[in-house]
Amino acid sequence: MDMHANTSSSVNLSTTPPNLSSHNSSLHPFLSSCFNSLSGWPIFTTFTITNILLLLPLSIFILYLGIKQWRKQRGRESMNPIDVFTYHMVGMELIGICGSVSCCCGAFIDHGALMWVGCNAFAINSCIKMSFHVLTCVERYVAVVHPITYMTLSKSGGVMFRNISIACVWIVCAGLIALRLLLNQNFTMILFFCNLVFSLIVISFCSLSVLRVLIRPGPAAEGRQQGKADKSKQRAFITITAIMAVLLVRFGGNLVCMALANSSVLSVSASCVVRMMGIWFCLPSSYVLPLLFLHRAEKLVCLKYKSDSS
């Protein structure tokens, strides 16, 4: 899913837009040869199949749980903001899977238009969906560092701010996809790294701020209440740290792959393989929010949960 953010960063989608009415439309020579080569195309295909087998059912299951929870809570209380961000995240993952499948099919049947549209849609989607990682961390940051403000917003206005933020992410994503398809300007690689660096800066700030609150000795409070507050802060810190870790893996892996692929040491074929392999560093960031969601819902079968969860 994250594949094309990487395909934009790792395969360098500076393609000339094909004539969408023509089945003989062609991509950039390097991209076309990379997808059609025996070394590059199988890597792309394996990545897509992995997402279909693992990420697709996971996303559908989370949306199913979300609909079930919404029906249960309808009219009583608002949903957990982190859960809402996760639902939208997996929604983008589904779009990304469709894009990667289109790109893969386009390469298989040698249909340049299908490949170009799918790859570019996947690239933009993969870049922008990191915004939901940022929103999740900012929400946890406000809850821990500014609890009074968070409680006030949760009672009035918080849902509106959350919905506006989510709507902005979707509007930006749709706008950039349309812009990329209309213009002969490749900005996906720049967008990918700029958005990734920005996300890491914001998430690092949130992580350090929450850690500072966590280790700072608070006023002597009732033992049970203080214990619950500390556990809540610990969960927030773990969530933010997990997100930051997978984004660091994504950033570092893509950076190394780009550096190796652009070096003069590797042949064209080896460079193609290295660029394509970079997409695998994007996988962890696709799974972190869904897995954290399942952990909160106590649905991870590999873990044992207490009957009286605190």
TrEMBL record:
Q: Which CDD domains match?
A: 7tm_classA_rhodopsin-like (cd00637)
GO BP:
phospholipase C-activating G protein-coupled receptor signaling pathway; positive regulation of Rho protein signal transduction
Q: Which UniProt keywords apply?
A: G-protein coupled receptor, Glycoprotein, Membrane, Receptor, Transducer, Transmembrane, Transmembrane helix
What name goes with this protein? Uncharacterized protein LOC117807009
Q: How does it sit in the membrane?
A: Multi-pass membrane protein
Q: Where is the signal peptide?
A: none
CC terms in the record's Gene Ontology section: plasma membrane
The molecular function terms of the Gene Ontology recorded here are: lysophosphatidic acid receptor activity
UniProt cross-references to Gene3D superfamilies, sorted A to Z: Rhodopsin 7-helix transmembrane proteins
Please report the organism this UniProt entry assigns to the protein: Xyrichtys novacula (Pearly razorfish)
Q: Where in the cell is it found?
A: Membrane
| Entry's transmembrane regions | 41-65, 85-109, 115-138, 159-183, 189-215, 236-261, 273-294
